[in-house]
Amino acid sequence: MIITISGVPGSGKSTVAKLVAAKLGFKHYSAGDFMREIAARRGLSLLEISKLAEKDRSIDEELDRRTSELGKGEDDFVMDSRLAFHFIPFSLKLFLIVGDKEAAKRIHSDVKNKAEGRKVEKESTSLAATLAAIKKRKKSEELRYKNYYGLNPYDTKQYDLVIDTTKTTPEEVAGKVVDAVKKSCRAC
To answer: Strand order of the sheet with strand 2-7?
Structure first.
């Protein structure tokens, strides 16, 4: 079984995906990690690489290739990714939402605490700057994905399950996901 977890920035995609993978004994992959690797290689922030990707399709092509290869070559993994649901269409597709202010608090806190993976988010110098960066990033991604793939990754109709994480702990969300996996696997 392959589980793809998408969602808005700050919704807890990576945290929840890691917890779900651990609970199920699956591997975990993150397109955000892939994107941060590309950003770090180029000496850019996450927002800067997202803006560059609007003009440089090779960035998304690298992410798409890595995601597609995983879907074709492996099983029993969880991937947090904005577009994995599209490149691994037979996966169990989950989407996490969160209020903008809560998302900004989470990301800004991670940056302040030098959380792994958040080091390239240089724009997050204050809560207000983090909120502004989230909004710019979402607009950038919506534009890019509409132009490249003709889709909006934030359209929740494309997913099997949508969970609001605003007032829910990552452990509670992971529990809901594991329950959904168990329900979907009854026919497995």
So the answer is: 27-30, 77-80, 2-7, 92-97, 161-164
Task: Note whether residue 127 is domain-resident.
Answer: yes
Q: What is the pLDDT of residues 34-65, one digit of tens each?
A: 888 899 999 998 878 888 988 898 998 999 99
Q: Is residue 188 part of a domain?
A: no
Q: How far is CA 149 from CA 3, 129, 142, 143, in A?
A: 21, 29, 10, 10
> Angle at CA 51, nearest 5°, toward 93 and 61?
55
| CA 110 from centre of chain | 15
187 part of a folded domain: no
How far is it, in rounded angstroms, from Cα 161 to Cα 177? 8
Name the amino acid, one letter, at 96.
L
Tell me the C-alpha distance between 102 and 168, whole Å: 11
The domain of 126 spans: 2-173
> pTM value?
0.83
28: CATH: 3.40.50.300
Nearest to 137 by CA among 1, 10, 22: 10
Q: What is the pLDDT of residues 76-115, one digit of tens each?
A: 999 999 999 999 999 999 999 999 899 888 887 765 555 4
